[in-house]
Every structure is written in C-alpha cells, then in structure tokens.
Amino acid sequence: MPPSSPGSVLRVASYNLRGLKDDPHASAAVVRAIDPDVLLLQEVPRFPGSSYAISAFARECGLLWSGRTRLVSGTSLMTNIRVDASDSQDRKLKVGIRDNPRSYTLARVSRPGGIAATVVSVHLSLVDKERVTHIRTVLQEIEADPHTPDDEPLIIGGDLNEGEDGAAWGTLAQRLVEVSDDRPTFPAKNPRHRIDAIFARGHRSATPGDQEVLRGHRAELASATDHLPVWVDLQF
C-alpha cells in the first residue's frame, strides 16, 4: 500500500496492455506488485466478448472495472477498493475517416479523508499533428467541464507515442508537471524509448515508482506486453 496517511497519498500507474494479446497473467502479476490506487490503461481489447477478458484481468489484479469504458477506442481505467471513484467516461477525439479511433477516459477519485482528483488515461495518435490537437482538446474539455474545478488536482497519464522532445509532450509539460520516472518504457524486452508518462498538477510532492518493487518480475515484464508500466505516489 502507498506510504503515509491513507487520505494524503494516491498511487497512480499507467500501462499499455497491447490488447491482452501477450500474457495477461504476467500483466496482472506486474500490476499486483505495483499495487496502484488507480490504473490508467491503454489498448484494452474491444473485440466482441472482450469484457469477460477485461473483467477477469481486473479480478486477477485485485482492482475494480466498471465495464463502461474502452468502447470508443481502448483507453480505460481501474481503481482499487481503497479509493472512491465516479463512473468512468470515454470521450471521443476527432480522427480521419479511415484512421484508428481515439479517445480518452476520465474519472474523479479520492482516498478516504483525501481531496478529489481527476484522473485521465490517454493514448495519443501515431500522427504528429494529431497528437498535439488531441492533447489540446483533452486539456480544453477538462478545463471547461463544470465538474472539474480549476483548483482540483489533475492527473493525466498514458502512451503518448512520442518522447519528451515531442510537441504534444511539451504541451502537457507546459500545463502540468511530469511526475513519472525518466526511463525508457518501450519496447518492454529491450526498452529504448520513453513514450509512456504521467503528468499532474495540484499535488504537494511526487515520488516516482520504486523499480525495486519489480525486481522479481523481470520475466513477467518482458512477456506481459510491449510496454513497461510507469507509476507515481502523489502526496496531497
């Protein structure tokens, strides 16, 4: 469990599951080792009947999944019983007629005795200009949402499909603070590129995930999916 008092720390992780096409049991073992309060997900499967696979994955992780998200493009999130969470929402992002659908998923969460925070899972496009447009849309829609006060903590994480020198990454970094670890996340078997990250605002301090937690899970990290997870403990 995250350190410090229950109401003051929120552990948020982000993980691209590659459609659970690899080894979902290995993925679940990695998630259990991290033990997040909130798990932001990308490439959650959307094939007919996949809700059973996702539900089974959530149970194996020890997390709750509402079943209401991932229908638009494959972003989703799960929460630990330690936190209170609103219903998750999928919001579409505009793409070309023949392009892969894109969306983002958000919810409001809080630990007992703690303040509420909006958490957002994103999976940006493979197209440079589209990534910038999408992240601007995400920020604009969240800021215009009456259910998301300007002074409320905001956490955005996911697969950005670009590194820190990218324009979309820079747009996020102008508005929020990068709080995840500075290390490669892709490909999992031989990571060379850092394209997964978590950004936040409204927190007092941030402690990136301790990699020692996963020391005994090297084989599972390589077989679980093609991305490595990122996570952070946020103190409020």
In short:
The protein has 236 residues and is an alpha+beta fold. It is 24% helix and 27% strand.
Report on the architecture of this protein.
By secondary structure, this protein is of the alpha+beta class. 24% of the residues lie in helices and 27% in strands. It has helices at 24-34, 50-61, 128-144, 167-175, 218-224; strands at residues 9-16, 38-42, 76-79, 84-85, 89-93, 102-110, 117-123, 154-159, 177-178, 196-201, 205-208, 230-235. α1 (24-34) runs parallel beside α2, α1 (24-34) crosses α5 (218-224) and α3 packs parallel to α4.
Oligomeric form: single chain
| Average residue pLDDT | 91
User: What about the largest sheet?
Assistant: 7 strands, mixed
The helix-and-strand class reads alpha+beta
What is the percentage of strand-forming residues?
25-35%
What is the CA–CA distance across the termini? Answer: 16 Å
Outline the low-pLDDT stretches.
none
Q: Round the Cα radius of gyration to an integer and report it.
A: 16 Å
| Helical content band | 10-25%
Please tally the helical runs, counting DSSP H or I stretches of 4 or more residues: 5
What spatial form do the alpha-carbon principal axes imply?
A: globular
Query: What is the string of SSEs from the N terminus onward?
Result: EHEHEEEEEHEHEEEHE
Give the beta-strand count: 12
